[in-house]
Structures are given as C-alpha cells and as structure tokens.
Design a protein that fits this description.
The chain is an alpha+beta fold. It has 17 helices and 18 strands. It is flat.
C-alpha cells in the first residue's frame, strides 16, 4: 500500500475516533466561557440537542458491548454527563454551590459504580478540572483553597465508592462461587451415591466435556428427586403420614443422608448421620423391614432434631445388588400401627424409588456410550483417511486426546524378526521426550516389552512408579509422572507395537476411559497395518525388488518431470547409462546367483556415489540409469569415472574364486544432446555403445555427428 494512502487512512481513523472527544471539549469550553449567562435561544437549543445526541450514541454503544467498554467510550460518556450536569446547575442556581450542587457526587458515584476503575478516575479528574475552570473563569471565584477542598472531597468520594463497591462485588462473587461449588459437590456426591458416576469421574476432564457431564448428571439427579418426591408425597397423603423420607447411603457408605422427603415437620435433620444411629440401624443390619409402634420421646429417630415426635414408624430397606443402599421411612404422630397392606404399599414405593434410580443409571450409561461411540466414529474416520504411518500415528494421538486428557503420547513399533522395539513418535508440550524418536531397544522386562508379550495394557490401574518400573529400557529415561498407560497395538492377535499415554495428574486413566482407549488402540493397529501394506505396495510398484533402486516405470515418470523442470528453468541435466561388461559370461561361468551379487554390488556403488537429488534406477538386466539435475558434461563425466573406478576395484568372492568386473558408461547432457527425454536417453545409449566399441571399461560422452562434405 502506498505511504500516502496509509497516512490518509490513519488520519481518517484518528479523526473518527477523536470526533466525540473534540465535541465534548467544545461543549465544555462553551459552558466555561458562557456559564449560565447564555439566554435560551437557537444556539443553546442546538447545543443541547447535540449533547443529547452524543450521550444517546455513547450509551447505545456501551449497551451493545458484551465485554468491557473501551477506555475512550467510558471517558467520553462520563465527561459528557459532567458537562451537562454543570450546565444544568448553572442554569438553575447560577453557581456550582447551590441547592442542587450535591448532584455532582451522585454523578461521581455513578461513574465509580458502572465504569471501569481507570476511566472512572480520569472522569473524576475531568470533573474536578472542569469545576475549577467554571468557578475561576465563568463565576469569578478564584478561591484556590476552596477549589482544593472541593477536589479532595470529590476524589475521596470517588475512591471510597470504588473501593467499597469492588469489595462488595468481590464478596458477592466469592459467596456465589462457594455456593455453586457446594451445589456441584452435593450434586456429585448424590450422583456417586446413586452410582451414576464412578469414584474418579468428572475430574481432570476438558472444560467442555466436564460441562456436558455435569449437565447430564444434574438432569439425572433432578429426575430421580422428582420421581422419588412424587412417590413420597403420594404415600404421605394416602396413608396419613407425618413424614415420608428416603434415606440414602453416602458415597463413603458409613452415613445416611436425606435423599428426598415429604413432611409436615419443621424439625427434620438435613445433615448426614451414622448408619448405626437410632431405630434405623436394625434395618441396615438385618436387611429386613422394621415396623414400630408406641414410640416415645426417648427413642432416637435420627432424621429428626431432638426428641422423637412420632408414635408409629415403618422402615423399608432399599436393596440394590444385594446391598442395602437406602431406607424408606414412614411415620405417624398418632399411635396407629402400619397394617400389612400399608407395608406392601411402602415396599412397592421403595421398589419404585429404586427403579427410578436404576433407570437413570442406565440412561446415563447409554448417553456416555453414545458420546464414546461418537469419539470412536470420528477416530475411525480419521484413521481410515490416513495412508502413511506418520499420518496414522498423528490421527491416533489426536483421537486419544479427545477421549482422555494426557500430557505425553508415544508410539513404539515391534519387529518380530529382529526382536527389536523402536520409538516412532513421541509428543509432549511440556515434557522433553522428542529425543526418544528413532531410538531402538531390545526386548526386555520393561512395560513396553511386557505389553507386547502379554498383549494386555499395563501398568495396573494406570499408576506409574518410576523406582520400580521401566517403560522402555533403563538406558532411555522416562519422565517421572504418576499416571501411565501402555496399550498393545494388536492386529489379528499379532502385536505391531504399543501406544503410550502419560499424565501429570493421578488417576488419569480410570475405568471410564480405559475401555475406550483399548478400542482406539485396536483401530490404530488396523490402520497401522494398512499403512504398512500401502507403503509395501507403493515400494513394490516403484522400486526394483533385487536392488531397492527405482524401477524403469518409476524412473521414466520422474525423469520426464525433471526434464520439464530443466526446460522451464533453463537448467542443465545429464543422463548416465551404465552397463556391466561381459555380464553374460559372468552368468555362464559363475551362475546367476553370482550375477545377482554383481548387480547388487553395482547398485550399492551407485547409491553411495549419487547425490540426494539424483535419480538412480535399474533399467533392466545389468543396465542402470542415473539422472543428475543441474549437472554439466564435466560433472557427469566425473561421476561416471568414480562409478567405473570403484567397480573396477571391487572384488566379489565366489565359490570359483575372486571375481572382478568392469562397466561401461555413456553420458548425454541436456540440451546439447536433446530437448526431450527420448532423444536424451537415446544419445546416452549411443554413447554407451561407443564405450563398448572403444574397448569397454570406459566413460564416453555423446558427440554430434560430423557434417558430411559434398564432392565438388
């Protein structure tokens, strides 16, 4: 962008931003210069309308904001209000010390309450300065002591409001936060006591997942309470009860707590009480219903405060999986015993309450299963789209991070033939483990080796003890973290490696995430096997099986691409064609096995001599091709001589004694020898035959044919 345009845009932006402040200063100057002497007329009405317009615009901008207002907006709004208030005071009282002068403190309190601290302090400074200018310039009151006193009181009032307001806001926030935390703690305790949550759930999860879990838990707990309260209220009114209450064991199992109740009493005890207290202890001990009558004040009914207010009581155990989880207690004030029919109704109500809890438990499990299936579905899609081992590993780690929260991840591969492990990936944002990538270690007694051998995740419960456990090998140090999970990557029962996850918080890999991670590891193993198969197929399609060099088809594709680049960017390019001399006699004399050894020997020489950007291919039989980018004739000849010289010095050991062979090399350079691949390769092939005709074991470059001279 042109500098003049940038300056113009900057000036326009600055003018637009400061437009309101300039008008505010102009209005303030009018009030200071004219004071209350200006008569009501078109001029004053116009300025009043302008003031109202500016205030309305700033208020609308402030109300539209979802976060904190910009500094300039808060300051302009406060300054405009102070100008308007001073103008009104001057019109009403003719002075700033009249009947309505305390209104200035109302404005200061408003600014301190609803504005941010820094803009509020600047507005208070503006109010003090504007007050001083009006008193000195418009009213002729040059009493500096009075001005200083007025300014001190204004600043003190603003600071006092600011401090007290912020302190009260902070207190309210702390109280509200504590109330919310208590409510969440009570919600989680209820959920665990109903077995909607495991002992370690809802800790250390991502914020979004934790919010989803809390909403699901709250919904289920509320549904349980509504269902149970309906049953209890119905019992109380139908059986003429004083109290109907469902007492439930806390998560620790040592106390009972009121889960839900319907009562006419004001003396119900809300705090948990020991399961051995009072007349309910027999229900928990015998796992049978207890029907009592003729109760007196000396009896202890633990859910009442003080003496026993009832005369008859029925307590029904709520048994879940053979364990008494709660007690349904019904009581009456009058000494009327519970009949067998009422006992049956109470037992059915207890069963209904238990079914309500069990139904919600199943609902929560189904919802969690749906969420986990969604994660696994997305993971399967990502793993299915990955074709290389690197992409598969990255997709697997991303999918694992969606399932569990961890601080490091690593993947190892297992080679059954060599019985060696290798770390192929290691990632962590805080822990230094990237240096482990590429490290190989033998099969040992470490966790990774044990997981590969036993095909079972380790360590037990995901707890890692560095003093007694080794992850990879003693030679390769592992970060000291409390949580670790090593998962086997199994494909058709065959171990391919392991997925290692670690976390700095304890109990990171509990029973809620472990099964899902095991399923993910199975998907990862399948995708890893597929990626290896794809790589193997690509290798077979593009390379020569004997030498590992490019095959003819792959070489032709890459050579034509390099020719196009050379033609486009006017680069030099050379082609070398190498052929082993008298190779047929080697096969006839020593056998094809020795001939294969010779071919592999020349291929290894070509691999050592080539550059990273060169293409080396086995063109067929004993013939090899080298394509060299940005290489002139001299460079190509130097490479050809190195190849020829090294092969000549190589001695191959055979059953019939040592064997030495030589090769012939032909060279052609673009564009002198041709501007198409076919022409360039034909020129190099012609140069090769020139080397053959010239005695072999030599390097020949393509030469243009000498023009024929016609006879005169």
């Amino acid at each position: 962008m042109d500098a003049t345009v940038r300056v113009t845009l900057l000036v326009r932006r600055a003018a637009r931003a400061s437009f309101g402040l300039v008008l505010t200063c102009a209005l303030a100057a009018f009030v200071v210069l004219r004071g209350g002497a200006a008569a009501v007329g078109p001029e004053l009405v116009t300025l009043g309308c302008l003031w109202l317009l500016l205030v309305a615009k700033r208020l609308r901008s402030k109300l539209r904001l979802t976060g904190d207002a910009p500094f300039l907006l808060d300051f302009e709004l406060g300054a405009l209000l102070s100008v308007g208030l001073d103008a009104v005071l001057l019109r009403l009282d003719g002075t700033l010390s009249g009947r309505f002068s305390p209104a200035i403190y109302v404005l200061i309190a408003l600014v301190a309450s609803y504005g941010r601290p820094v803009p509020g302090l600047f507005v208070v400074g503006w109010i003090v300065v504007l007050d001083a200018l009006i008193r000195y310039k418009a009213l002729g009151e040059p009493n500096y002591e009075a001005l200083a006193t007025q300014a001190a009181f204004a600043c003190a009032f603003a600071l006092l409001n600011l401090v007290l307001l912020r302190a009260e806001v902070a207190r309210v926030r702390i109280t509200a936060r504590a109330r919310i935390e208590d409510e969440l703690l009570r919600l989680r305790d209820d959920a665990r006591s109903y077995r909607l949550l495991g002992a370690g759930e809802a800790r250390g999860e991502k914020a979004e997942e934790q919010n989803t879990e809390e909403r699901l838990t709250r919904s289920s707990v509320d549904e349980i309470h509504q269902s149970v309260h309906y049953a209890l209220d119905l019992l109380r009114h139908c059986l003429d009860l004083y109290t109907a209450v469902l007492l439930w064991r806390t998560n620790s199992g040592t106390h009972l707590r009121i889960s839900e109740l319907s009562t006419a009493s004001d003396d119900v005890r809300d705090a948990p009480f020991s399961i051995g207290d009072g007349v309910l202890a027999a229900v928990l001990t015998k796992k049978e219903a207890v029907l009592l009558e003729n109760l007196g004040p000396s009896y202890i009914v633990p859910y009442y405060v003080g003496g026993c207010p009832v005369r008859a009581l029925a307590a029904i155990p709520v048994v879940d999986d053979g364990i008494v989880r709660g007690v349904l207690a019904l009581d009456r004030i009058d000494n009327r015993p519970f009949s067998s029919h009422e006992h049956d109704l109470a037992a059915q109500a207890a069963h209904y309450c238990l079914r309500a809890i069990q139904n919600e438990r199943i609902f929560v499990q189904l919802e969690r299963a749906k969420v986990e299936q969604g994660k696994l579905y997305r993971a399967a899609q990502a793993l299915g789209a990955a074709l290389s081992e690197k992409d598969v590993v990255e997709a697997g780690v991303r999918a694992a991070r969606e399932i569990a929260s961890f601080d490091l991840a690593a993947v190892t591969t297992w080679d059954e033939a060599t019985r060696m492990h290798q770390v192929c990936a290691a990632k962590s944002e805080e822990l230094a483990i990237e240096q482990l990538v590429g490290q190989r270690f033998a099969h040992n007694t470490g966790l990774v080796s044990m997981v590969v051998t036993n095909r079972f995740p380790l360590p037990y419960k995901g707890e890692f003890d560095r003093t007694h456990q080794v992850v990879l090998t003693k030679r390769l140090a592992w970060p000291n973290i409390p949580s670790l999970l090593v998962l086997p990557l199994l494909h058709h029962g065959r171990p391919l490696g392991t997925l290692i996850l670690g976390a700095k918080r304890r109990h990171a890999f509990g029973d809620t995430v472990r099964p899902t991670l095991e399923v993910l590891a199975s998907h990862l193993a399948v995708s890893l096997s597929n990626a290896r198969m794809v790589h193997k197929l690509e290798t077979m399609a593009t390379t020569d099986g004997m030498t590992g060099l490019f095959n003819k088809r792959s070489m032709l594709e890459q050579a034509k691409a390099k020719m196009s680049a050379a033609l486009r960017f006017r680069r030099q390019l050379s082609v070398l064609v190498c052929d082993i001399d008298f190779f047929k006699s080697v096969n006839d004399t020593y056998g094809h096995d020795v001939g294969d050894v010779v071919i592999k020997g020349l291929s290894e020489i070509l691999k050592r001599q080539k550059r990273a950007t060169d293409i080396v291919a086995r063109f067929g039989g004993e013939e090899f091709v080298v394509v060299c980018e940005q290489t002139d004739l001299a460079g190509a000849r130097l490479l050809g001589e190195r190849i020829r010289d090294e092969l000549e010095k190589t001695v191959f050991q055979t059953p019939n004694g040592p064997l030495k062979v030589t090769c012939s090399v032909g060279i052609a350079t673009f564009p002198e020898a041709g501007v198409t691949w076919d022409n360039l390769f034909k020129a190099a092939d012609d140069a090769l035959y020139a080397s053959k005709r010239g005695g072999r074991n030599r390097v020949s470059a393509w030469q243009p044919l000498a023009p024929r001279i016609k006879a005169g």
